[in-house]
Amino acid sequence: MKVAPKVKHSNPSSNEFVFVAPSKIEGKGLFARSSILKGTDVVCYQGPLISAEEGNLLSTQGNRYIFAFNRKFYIDGSVKWNLARHANHSCNPNCEIVKVNSQVYLRSVREIPKGEEITYNYGYSFDGYENNPCLCGAKNCIGFMVLEHHRNRIKTG
């Protein structure tokens, strides 16, 4: 399996697999530089490791890039050198989150053609789901960003 290199701080807008560009989903997104094979660790989610308490506080203050690493620690992905922060949510994602040697990667779950936007399921809990609207536009979109097993709890239409 090919593992993506750590993002160099001098160029936070691309690595060998992806580049940042305007997204139809929201704001900026990550896009495949060339075809990406299934099982590729596309990009590492980087940032300072902070306590869960600090992560929750920053999140309530509007930091959208807080990533729960485990129950005790979160990653503050708001740093400019975190390329993965540009990956948008999708109800039909082409990547998933995996932990590799104490790091978090977006790993492709299928082949991704050149130019396709890199997405993953943000995996938000059901509590307060109304506060997390989804704009992905996928055929199976339910309108909210929730964990897969909560999708059937949300009534659509």
Looking at the chains present, what oligomeric state does this protein adopt?
single chain
User: What share of residues are in beta strands?
Assistant: 25-35%
In one word, what is the shape? globular
The separation of the N and C termini measures 42 Å
Order of helices and strands: EEEEHEEEEEE
Number of helices: 1
Taking the sheet with the most strands, its summary is: 4 strands, mixed
Question: What structural category arises from helix and sheet content?
Answer: mainly beta
Poorly predicted segments: 1-10
Detailed description of the structure:
- A four-stranded mixed sheet has the order 1-2-10-7, with no helix packed on it. A three-stranded antiparallel sheet has the order 3-9-8, with no helix packed on it.
- The protein has 157 residues and is mostly beta strands.
- It has one helix at residues 52-60, and strands spanning 18-22, 28-32, 41-45, 49-51, 66-68, 73-76, 88-89, 95-100, 103-108, 117-120.
In a nutshell, what does this entry contain?
The chain contains one helix and ten strands, in the order ββββαββββββ.
Provide tags for this entry.
disordered N terminus, mainly beta, 4-stranded mixed sheet, 157 residues, 3-stranded antiparallel sheet, globular
